[in-house]
Amino acid sequence: MQSANKLYILLALAVYIASVAVYGLRWVIVLRRAGVRLRLRDAVEAYLAGILVNNITPSARAGGELMRIAYAYVKTGAAPAKLLNSVVFERISEAVPVVAIAVAALVEVLLSGGRARGLIIGVALMLAAIGLGVKYWDRLLEMASGRLGFSYDPGSEAALQRLLRDRRLLTVAAALGAAVWVMDIFRLYLEALAVGWRAPLGHFVTASFLYLIIGLVAVTPGGVGIVEGGLAATFIALGAEPKQALAITIIERLISYVIASVLGLVVTLISGAGRAWTLLKSRWRRTGFTPRLGA
């Protein structure tokens, strides 16, 4: 680690911050089409606060999404159904880039002559999750509303359908989601260069997809322990030396876990995210969904 190229690490950090900004921009665009005006700065802060919640609660990213909704609610006073619809729309729009990256990862492994059994299982699980999410999104809306403590409005289904029928919006959202995937792949590539591991770019496509799968199935807060072990094992399987794989994993978690959590904490302390967290905890308690976290 001490011999790692600091310039590449800083570039990887810059790419990570840029990816959060792109996510924020996508949400602003979707919200405006839904009739909610949220500043880009507030959207980025909401994402950072959501990352903090994801990193300290065993919620498989659900806690972070609810934090985003609560933050936007505090900032705009918009109808919770509109905010919830925007998040669900984002997740549906990500189906295209996720499937594309999964197929690309599978092709890369097959062409390189590697064993693809584990990757095929991961792709199958991801496609199944996407299919279930698209098929039962109305029930997911109702469940999420209950977690937030808001009454469920069946009319929100029609509002979400209107968003999904907007092909231009869907295309823009999917394109921005794909841009973030490219940034994530490039970030891993820069981190590998920082420790002197030069590998084909396709390897990092595979690593990025498996990173997503590992993060989704991790049951610990922020995936601590599980993500590190899985990511290091992934890089070793792709040809990195154990020391290199460990160093890449440390750099990645330093950026995406430690620094991102610190930024999220700062946002929570100095902006509306603090009020959003208080609101979220109070509603979670009323619905029996308070995370196992110090109040």
Automatic annotation (TrEMBL):
GO terms for cellular component: plasma membrane. The keyword Protein transport does not apply. Its main location: membrane. Keywords: Cell membrane, Membrane, Transmembrane, Transmembrane helix. It is a multi-pass membrane protein. InterPro entries: L-PG_synthase/AglD (IPR022791), Pyrokinin_CS (IPR001484). This is TIGR00374 family protein. It comes from Pyrodictium occultum.
